């Protein structure tokens, strides 16, 4: 038995002794060891020790600050500038309703049965042509419909990375990606965000570590709002090609620009199939659709589809059907125009109000698009400390450490400016300024 389980005799004897001490078993000399009549091992109330059953994480995961924040029960009067969520009052429910009424019963019921893992074919076609209009040269069979970008990040990491592999990430970057890399046991090499892409550090990493992937939010990074210039995009691709580096381009925000259009996606400049591109309708329409899309080399799409099949067979086809109609009938473009206009106003109000009330306390760069204002506290106050006081004053944000691969004492934080209308943003900033006052008083 010891051989079978791969344990030594001493371990087995110690285990028996422990069971005896705990009065779970009794030993009868000459007969053997028996589970005791009243032992909890017999009992119907015996509880499975769930936390002991999970396979160990390759790396200790950081506590999920975002998850905790979102699930912390809070009174409705607290203003949350934490979660990256569109304004729910902008969700196009009336249009969805009319599309359902008009088309649902006329649709072939088979469209709502099991469908191919790669996605609802009409949506694959519509998305491929939308991507082509955005400069990304793709076809329906190179397009995979996914259950949000989060799934794209997970599946891609799952098929490309093994424990111990190196991945380059911007620092700071999206927490959801950091956590996937950690869970897989990949080693992250960080590329500091100093207003430009540091190609020297990048090349050094490529030569020294031969990383498998570079994960990048090329346009309106979450949390910093930074955008790669067109030149940086070209230089990066040249370097990637030279070193056979795969780039995972995560692009949920590029359609939400508040001034000039941003440069075209890395994928649109990619002549060597180095880039895996993914985006989502979560930020532009509603996260509840749980629908995103990914495009890349056909071999990758095939492998990802296989992996996706293990996870969910295919993404929700009611959402896919609805989105296809929504896109085809031109509603998406209209909606994007509307949200750009509204979110720009919100960004401007937040920037103005922060300058008015918090100029002495924080510095920031004005983002040209996306959802977030990335703030740096000027005085030596950590954002965790600020959050403590902010919650007392009735406002929430995400402390900066959530976006770093190594938790640190830092003084940055992220404010999301799209979820609430202007007056709520103004009130949120006033509360934040009260939180600073409380800190200075103590
Ligand atoms: N990538 C980035 C950069 C994000 O900000 C988010 C959402 N916060 C996601 C991926 C996940 O998006 P989805 O809802 O499409 O899964």
From TrEMBL:
GO molecular function, one term: transaminase activity
UniProt xrefs under InterPro entries: Aminotransferase_I/II_large, HTH_trans_reg/aminotransferase, PyrdxlP-dep_Trfase, PyrdxlP-dep_Trfase_major, PyrdxlP-dep_Trfase_small, Tscrpt_reg_HTH_GntR, WH-like_DNA-bd_sf, WH_DNA-bd_sf
Keywords: Aminotransferase, DNA-binding, Pyridoxal phosphate, Transcription, Transcription regulation, Transferase
SMART domains documented for this protein: HTH_GNTR (SM00345)
Pfam families per the UniProt record, alphabetical: Aminotran_1_2, GntR
PROSITE patterns: HTH_GNTR (PS50949)
Family of this protein: Belongs to the class-I pyridoxal-phosphate-dependent aminotransferase family.
Assembly and interaction partners: Homodimer.
Protein name per Swiss-Prot or TrEMBL: DNA-binding transcriptional regulator, MocR family, contains an aminotransferase domain
Provenance organism: Desulforamulus aeronauticus DSM 10349
Lineage start: Bacteria, Bacillati, Bacillota, Clostridia, Eubacteriales
